[in-house]
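Pinned message: reference record for Beta-galactosidase
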Amino acid sequence: MTERRSFKWPALLTSTGRGIAFGGDYNPDQWPDEVIDDDIRLMREAHVNTVALAIFSWDRIEPREGEFTFDWLDMVIDKLGAAGIAVDLASATATAPIWLYDKHPEVLPVDRYGHIVNAGSRQSWQPTSPVFKEYALRLCRAMAERYANNSYVTAWHMGNEYGWNNRYDYSDNALHAFRSWCKDKYGTIEQLNDAWGTAFWSQHVNSFEEVLLPRHMGGDAMVNPAQQLDYERFGNDMLLDFYKAERDAIEKICPGKPFTTNFMVSTDQCAMDYAKWANEVDFVSNDHYFHEGESHLDELACSDALMDSLALGKPWYVMEHSTSAVQWKPLNMRKRHGELVRDALAHVAMGADAINFFQWRQSSSGAEAFHSAMVPHAGEDSKVFRGVCELGAVLEALSDAGLQGTELEHADTAILFSAESEWATRCQTLPSMKLSHWHDVRDWYRGLLDVGRRADVVPLAYDWSQYKIIILPTVLALPDVDTRRIADFAQTGGTVIIGYATGLVDERFHVGLGGYPGAGNGLLRQMLGIRSEEFNVLGSEAEDEPAGITLSNGMTTRLWQNDVTSTAPDTQIITTYQGPAAADWELDGTPAITTHSYGAGKAIYIGCDLDRQDIAHLVGLLSDALPLPSDQTAADSSQTCDARILHTVRRSTDGAVRFDCYLNRSKQPVEITGIHGEPVVAYRCESVAKGTYAIMRNGVLIMRSER
Ligand code: GAL
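Predicted structure (tokens):
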């Protein structure tokens, strides 16, 4: 694994440099200069202490080629700094000016059909274009030279959401870069032929010069899945290289400041493999937009659980979220009263030390005019702005109480996440297009919360050996080395839960032979003590076909069902298929979920997909077989709780101070008892008696206690 840069957190302009960062993307270039003083007045009122500045300001900074005009930016930074507001300064390269595209249309990306992508939105450039890189790096150097010694600039914000719009580029530049990427990866063309299985459909290549991009090949022609997966990795690596080049250009001139770029971690997105990116930033930061509906809080916590693992347990930064509605979905719901503050505090409860929004002032024109902001169209006399001020005060109280720098307590259970498996589940040559690794991770996360267990979400590539339980839902592409690590984990006493489509292929998209799951040349099957000869894809909605198959304990599978046989005398069957649909498929009484001892540990196989309710039901059934969470053995841990509450603990690194965070997951008030410490935040929450609190819908309680 690449060595990680050391953790470096941006200072605030407070006397100690410490405190929870609070603010948002600040785009004063959208407004007349007079608005800036008013902005600063309102920022102070709202306790804003930091802003991300100049993200989309390239055309203002370099209005014509080579003509740099910094006066406006100097003025804005000076005013902010004088008001005690620190600047997370952008490289300003996220959107190039029209003059650049006009002069160099060759930097525009090409889609898979060979169409040139048009300029006029954002990120309309090829990650592999040397011409674009030259312009971007020149701007980076100019920014660095100008602001290297500016004490108000306390962090660098590189690009913006790399890969949001130019993740897939099929240009000739990309083709040449892909060929050399493949050469670096495989060394010899035989290795590539072997990995891609090119014996199929006459795809043998004689040299790296014959390697192709997975461009559109007519009709519904299918792409070689191994080639597609490599193309995904390549796209990730090209953008990461681009980020590194920009970062290095600035760092050379301006060493010592912390660098970051905003990730896009959310449980239905996976543009990048952030397990790699996290090594290249000084602090990790994320843009997270809420999912409307019942999953709102759980989804946020699940995304954040991955963020906290990417940060290796260190505090991390919410670079963007919304005070209320976004504007980029077909229907954009606003937040309910209380959710503005609750969501921000939920991020804090999950390990964030910085709460920023997109954006400070709601635009009055342009594509994002209907996206919410900290100062809405209605102005300061508005619920949203009052909520922002209330949040600022609460965050300041948490800073004063010493929350900043405390770390989220780990759970005992890790759900393993792999960006490569998420990409693999999107592959169009799989037996079902309904597979989703991320959604299964989220269902497991929520199913566990439903029975009062909290899990971490940890990248497969990281070290998860300290957990008691690991869960692999739909880790479709499981490399041999990871299969070995999993088997070793079980061998030495860990409990492993393997989901129905985990280990179906390896990282080259090769299917292991001898039965499913084939990962590790049979090692996964051996660990599980089962074998599946065939699987059945459900949900086709074909006439007179059962929509699902029931299990003997009342659960239902609706998507994917493996025909499982036990292969070890000590494999125990936890539940079988039963009922009319099972009979229809001649499955009655055959194993659906099994458990098998392996070394000092245990391996549980879930042979079919389950929804969140059934996962919760299953975890309840398995509770005797699963190690107890620590809080049932250690009095002060955070692992289980009333299932209606999300309970997390942040501790100081010396263990002396802890903050217990309680968030209501339900729509009804929830009363919690036996609560210790001093309340620092009681938001939509009332003290009922000593140690007893009633937390309302969207309420949050944060207690501080000392050892
Ligand atoms: C992000 C982006 C912001 C803004 C925001 C709206 O993806 O970084 O600039 O567009 O979405 O939700």
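Pinned by admin. Summary line: The mean pLDDT is 96.
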